[in-house]
Amino acid sequence: MCRAxxxxxxxxxxxxxxxxxxxxxxxxxxxxxxxEMRNMLAIIGHLMKEQNLTAKAAMDMLGLPSxxxxxxxxxxx
Length: 77
Hints:
The protein has 77 residues and is mainly α. The protein has one domain (2-76). Helix content is 88%, strand content 0%. The chain is built from four helices and no strands. The two termini are 23 Å apart.
């Protein structure tokens, strides 16, 4: 799991550097965060389906802090 997030962050940084330092970095990081959100929602959904878990239980299993869980819960509903 952590490797996927690290790769997403690295991709965002790489995109940013290619597009020009200030503006590109901002855009790249935003794209990386968006991709991270989509990936995490897919993982949560998969756990919910395959393990018959609630969204909260799936996020707890992944070790997501409660402040982050709120943003994912909003997107799941």
